[in-house]
């Protein structure tokens, strides 16, 4: 529950602090005094978007801080999940600078607005007139029924998941697999369109049987074949120069080796020269031998020339076709085509596997949906009866509540479409709330529903913003008593304009405007017993209450 609230430099509030009672707190004040401004500040504390234009003093930062006692609530896991320090006194703080920059803190640890919202939604529930309008929305109605049926409670199903969350997990898994299946289907359809052409290109490359470095070798071989006669002639002349001419080099080197060898005994240097010359002679003999071999092998071969030319022409044609210049690039294209052709089979296998997993997930989802749906339908009668009794107590004895249900395609919330139908008058056919309920009836409906749900939620603090709109008299007294009963298990903060409800509060706060020399500011004070009598008398009779108004005020407080 909220034990301390500080608001500084926000809208008409220069500085404000209140320490609410742990039970029922009433906030009253003239229209425009600043009651809704307080709610706006609390909304910032719970993660709503900030606007620097709302700063009281545009040169100073706005600070809103709430201290909550959460010792009686099992919220430690919420803090652990967000990696935050847990303490029985939880401090939420929001700061907005004049530049518009916003900062949020939980127990003095900086957090994002998302984290602040996650923590805040476990600490407070603010009911405003907007929520009353939401009551006409069927998804909002479904959420109400899920809370009532216990479908959102933890630790009752599938380990630590609620029925709704358990279903939602299977739904999200199914939708992901469904998306994967559609994506694979599209990919396979596209791949199959290209399959024939890619297969033709791949077969063309595979049939030629390309080898790395083949092109260079063939081009060299072709040059030799096309110039075979000239090569053979020059090789013959070279051999003759080395070995057969009158002054051939090998014979001269042989004589040189013998002559230098005769000098070897005179000095080591001559032996070294002889060895070097002998090495030259051996090398030239080897060269001569290789030249002779090359000369013998070199023959004009028109058939082979034609074969190499055709092979190279095929390679050149493929290179032009695929717009590349080397065999390595052709081989890379071949591997890519192999991947594309093979991927069709792989995609087919992946599609089959995903389809199987999708159908299994769908079956599991539908099973969970069926359980969720049965729990919802089982709660309809009890919900209708309990709401009927409460509405009768609030002055609508002829009210009828009917929950209309029909099966629907799976969504994130299940396979149910529901609509709460209502009629306030005897003999009138129940219709949708938007058509059938007036403003006052909406307020009583919403309060009754909040009353029914109070025991089924773990929220420490509930805030009502003028939920008493459109009611008066004895009904207002009963509304006040309902709030008192709710306050036995939840801290209630209620902004009200009705004296019957104001009199029910354990603590009564009064919001008022105070004019300074240069501007108007909003202030709040906790009323004493005498001040409460005065305020309630003013609420009954206006600015100048009569003695009977004071008497009525005292009677209301005595109730």
Automatic annotation (TrEMBL):
InterPro entries: DNA_recomb/repair_RecN (IPR004604), P-loop_NTPase (IPR027417), RecF/RecN/SMC_N (IPR003395). The lineage of its organism: Bacteria, Pseudomonadati, Bacteroidota, Cytophagia, Cytophagales. Gene3D superfamilies: P-loop containing nucleotide triphosphate hydrolases. GO terms for molecular function: ATP binding. Belongs to the RecN family. It holds the Pfam family SMC_N. GO terms for biological process: DNA recombination; DNA repair; SOS response. It comes from the Bacteria. May be involved in recombinational repair of damaged DNA. GO terms for cellular component: bacterial nucleoid. SUPFAM superfamilies: P-loop containing nucleoside triphosphate hydrolases. Residues 167-245 form a coiled coil. Residues 5-515 form the RecF/RecN/SMC N-terminal domain. The keyword Mitochondrion does not apply. Keywords: ATP-binding, Coiled coil, DNA damage, DNA repair, Nucleotide-binding. This is DNA repair protein RecN.
